[in-house]
Amino acid sequence: MKHILVRVFAIAGILFSSLGMAENLPLNEPMGGEPFGHSVKEIGNGLYVFRWWVYRNVFLVTDEGVIVTDPLNPKAADLLNEEIRKVTDKPVKYVVYSHNHHDHISGGNIFKQQGATFVAHENVLKELGDHPSAVVPVPDITFNDSYTVELGGRKMELQYFGPNHGESLVVMRLPEEKILFIVDIVTPRRVAFRTMPDFWPDEWIRSLKEIEAMDFDYVISAHGPANEPAIEKDTVVAEQRIYLQDLMAAVKAEFDKGTHSPDKLRKIVKLPKYKNWRSYNEWLPMNIERIWAYYHMAW
Ligand SMILES: [Zn+2]
């Protein structure tokens, strides 16, 4: 694996050095190479949450092997593999991708080498065809609506809700524990991510309503600071939906009064109900601009 990477980076190095950009691109360290820190939290019954920087995934240890979700990036995946080795000597049998975005699904080669089968929504395959990466193994099993990974008497159900954040995002459910692992579309007590890249506001709200109707008691979300609990009550899904509805309604109300300038909307629209949510001051104006685009361009 290592020699493949070295070769890829050598080629990329030649390419970019000819453009004079090599030093500026974090080719060897996909996330910039800083020591972001990581931790593992045992939830119980073989379920663990792995955190790297502000990213989280889950892994499930069974009698017959391990089911891993989003490997994140090569550096995080190495650490994840070390952490798995601390709790079991069983191999990683499955790697499940939450969606197509490379910041979540890079780094799986270390598990591919152990013979893991990669599972994802069928649109991930399409996306990787357009944006291939040497550090993102393509899925072996794909599906359209739903799929259940079964191993050692345990189950992980994968459910697709249509487009919301990209067109390949699946929600993972552990039916015995009634726990959902949700990536990017639910981040408790934080406004939406910056300008909401690849998020479609109306489809996002629709999906959250459908998720709320699922049978679950707890949510593990893929983003959050190190000092917050990894596992939350089911109500965080509705809270996320209500935030989006409030955001859209507030922008629409100002839009209907005749304020169509995104710069003005960013200054005028406030959502004081959410002032204690993370990134309120920094990202709310960006959220507003994304919703302006929705009403202005129907995008
Ligand atoms: Zn994403």
Would you kindly provide a written description of the structure presented here, covering whatever features stand out?
By secondary structure, this protein is an alpha/beta fold. It has two domains: 1-30; 36-234, Metallo-beta-lactamase, Chain A. It is built from nine helices and 13 strands. The strands form two sheets. Strands 1-2-3-4-5-6-7 form a seven-stranded mixed β-sheet. A hairpin with a 2-residue loop joins strand 8 (146-151) and strand 9. Helix 6 packs antiparallel against helix 7, helix 7 (235-256) crosses helix 9 (280-297) and helix 8 (262-268) packs across helix 9 (280-297). The chain is elongated. Mean pLDDT is 90; it is low at 1-28. Zinc ion binds at residues 99, 101, 104, 165, 184.
Short description:
The protein contains nine helices and 13 strands.
List the defining traits of the structure above.
alpha/beta; Metallo-beta-lactamase, Chain A; 23% strand; single chain; 35% helix; 299 residues; elongated; binds zinc ion; 6-stranded mixed beta sheet; 7-stranded mixed beta sheet
What are the SSEs and their pairings?
Blueprint: H1 2-17, E1 38-44, E2 47-52, E3 55-62, E4 65-69, H2 74-87, E5 92-96, H3 102-105, H4 109-112, E6 117-121, H5 122-130, E7 141-143, E8 146-151, E9 154-160, E10 170-174, E11 179-182, H6 201-212, E12 218-221, E13 231-233, H7 235-256, H8 262-268, H9 280-297
Parallel strand pairs: 4-5, 5-6, 6-7, 11-12
Antiparallel strand pairs: 1-2, 2-3, 3-4, 8-9, 9-10, 10-11, 12-13
Helix pairs in contact: 6-7, 7-9, 8-9
The structure holds zinc ion.
